[in-house]
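Predict the 3D structure for this chain.
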Amino acid sequence: MIRLMRTSEYKRLEGDLAKMAEGDFCMQSTGVPIQERSRIRSVIKRTVRSLVSLIRVVDRSSRELHIKMEDTSAKSAMISEQIEGVTGTIREVAVSMQGAAEHVADISEEMNSSYRYLQEVKKKNGELVASSASLSEEVSSGKKEISAAMEQMRVISGESGQVHERMNRLGEAIKKIADMTLLIEEISSQTQLLALNANIEAARAGEHGRGFAVVAQEITRLAAQTKQETTGIRESIRTVTRCSDVLGDSIIHMHAALGTTESTLKTAADKYGKVESFLVHIIGEMNEVDERLEGIASSTLSTTDSVNRTSAMLQQIAAGSEEVLALAELQQQNLLVINDNIQESARRSLSLRSSVSQFRLPSRQESHPMQEELERWVECAMAIRAVMVSMIESRDIEQIREWHRKKQYYEARLETCFQDIRAKAATNEDRHQLDQLSKAWLHFAEIKDRNAAWMLEGEYESAKQALITKGRTNFKRAMDLATEWMDRG
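Done. Predicted structure below.
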């Protein structure tokens, strides 16, 4: 049946709707018994409560958003200036790194050249060591040969002494022979004289002396031959004496020369010994130099490798600096865009505040004592609902996980709001309302958690259907309880 509306009730409804149209949500209780109130007025009352709660949340959020946007804008401008300075610094670092990389590359090339030079020097030093060792062997062999020559000279010198002594004996013998020759000549002369006297006496004897004359003539002939042979011997002795004198002088000179030669050979042997010692010392020094060259070459090669790695690292850093510079410049551009977006968001928050300011809400004095706590709860509950809507709209598993973490964060904040409300619920009515709100939120939380599990498992359609059916209904129920509780103040 169609229930006719009383004129007074119609006028009250008309007045309420007119106030709503003007943005005035300060509706006073009329004192009309509940039995006489129309269902339309009750619906309007619930609608007004929901709108008042929503507008208050929006007004509070817009105020906080504007404050945060202003603070964020100031920090963004500061960060933009800092990034600009950092970009300039990175640009300078990139240029310096590039220059350093080029210098290190030059150093690396010089180190490579030094390594090649060291290898060449090491090779030459090895050849010199081999040549010095060969020379040392030759010097040692020469020293041995000189020592052998010195020994031979000593033998020759000893033999020359013996020859000299024998020559002296020969001279004495020749002298004795000469004396004997003189004696023979003298005997020969006396024999001739005696033979002449014998011939004279034989001639005087006549026939009797004829035999004696033959003997005397034979003796004369023999004496003449002896004298003649003696003369030859004397000439031979003179020749032998002259040769002996010359040979003696030669032996004396040879002996003196042998002494000089021996002294010279001894000096040469000493010099050969010094040269040999010097060469041994030099070869030792060269071997030590070769070892040091090997160490230096190894160190140079290691240093070259380190310089090459440093050069490669600097080139990578330079390239990285270029990339960082490009990223920094890109971030600077992005930050400028973000700053513009922040400014635009700040302007829109002002527009939102301006829009909210057109509504007239009940004064805070007329509101519930826990109005602020309940509004924070409503704001946190709406954030959870927004997170769930965003999660179910996503199809990226990583993004879904991120939304799930945000859901857990806001759930922890909502639990803190429940604790604050529970601590201030002093009356039985407030505790009853809190119990009703907790149960309604628990029903929504079960659907919410199941939807989140479906999204993590990839059951997107199931989560979406639950969101727009049971999820929406249970969330609206919890929000209505919260707004009714605030209206009971």
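Residues 30-36 have pLDDT under 50 and may be disordered.
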